Amino acid sequence: MFGRDWKETIEMLVDCAGARIGGAKRLLNEFDSYVRDRSISNLRVVGRDRRLTAPWIARREYQRQRFECAVALNNVGFTIAGCERRVLMHGAQHFLWPEEAQNLGWRISPAVHVQAQVVRTAALRSHRIFVPSTSMAERVASALPSTADRITVTYNPVTVPDMATTPRRRFGSPHILCPVIITPRKMMTARLRAALAALDLLAASPEQIDVTLLVTARVGTLEDPLLSGHPRLALIGERSAEGITDLMLRCDAIYFPTELESFGYPLAEGRMMGVPVVARRSAHNIEIAGPALVGYDRECPEDIAAALHTALTTKFSPDQTKKFDRNSYFDQLLGVSRN
């Protein structure tokens, strides 16, 4: 049924509900570019600009047209629509390890726990489950052992500006970008405190490296509003995917301290742009960021300061591989092949 030539007729349904901000929106941008470039016919996309709600999940199943393949880009697989059902899972919060659930406690809302049950139940009806990292595959396989042989690891697509025609325009002084949507489960208050203390250490060092930390957040999103008064912190608010890319091309490094990630676009984008990524030295971050990772083991100012110093004083080059190739990714996800 699948794996046929991409020019042949394939009745395909794709749900993109919920892709309004963050990594989900970046993925949808890549999908839209892919569809435009490939001119795939007989493809119906639903859910655009919609929230992923229970009424929508129920409604999307009942389509007048018959589809050979139904693909959900939003964690919740189809259960009825489509002769073959495929789902992209990128919600690590729906597959917490027991110790994570215990440590996060109230920071994981009751709604997320309900969502997790819906996600897991729907996954049992999926023929193919796609995840963006090895760590996410391990989470899903552990929670749903019967799906292990249906899981495929395929890295999210990352398309960056042509570095030859888009030279990096640096800020006048060192700037580090922290492109994170702040939610309680990311525990960003403590992590920003540690990063700012690290910047204070750099400023007080013999080299007197004075760095500004740009965070894509507003004052109201911080658990400690007083943190916004730090002289080396600039809260710049949420930015579009294009705005984030522009900032990455101008900054000297990326600070990405979050741990509950299924992929982490900044890890891959830093790698593809040749921008160092300062983050935990974990197996997940090594897999996605590769040679761009400047890791630290302890979340303390001294270790973070050392990593930041390395990032600011070492030259990094863009990754020239096709590890995050858009066309290969969506060809595999949608089950089409091109000769």
Gist of the model:
The chain is of the alpha/beta class and 339 residues long. It has helices spanning 22-38, 54-60, 98-104, 110-123, 134-143, 188-204, 241-250, 265-273, 283-289, 301-313, 326-334, and strands spanning 12-15, 43-46, 69-72, 84-88, 128-131, 151-153, 175-178, 212-215, 233-235, 253-255, 277-280, 293-296. The two termini are 17 Å apart.
What does this structure look like?
- This protein is α/β, with parallel strands linked by helices.
- It has 11 helices and 12 strands.
- It has helices at 22-38, 54-60, 98-104, 110-123, 134-143, 188-204, 241-250, 265-273, 283-289, 301-313, 326-334, and strands at residues 12-15, 43-46, 69-72, 84-88, 128-131, 151-153, 175-178, 212-215, 233-235, 253-255, 277-280, 293-296.
- It has a 6-stranded parallel β-sheet with strand order 2-1-3-4-5-6, covered by helices on one side. Strands 9-8-7-10-11-12 form a 6-stranded parallel β-sheet, sandwiched between helices.
- The longest helix is centred in the N-terminal third of the chain and has 17 residues, at 22-38.
- The chain is globular.
- The two termini are 17 Å apart.
- Mean pLDDT is 91; it is low at 1-9.
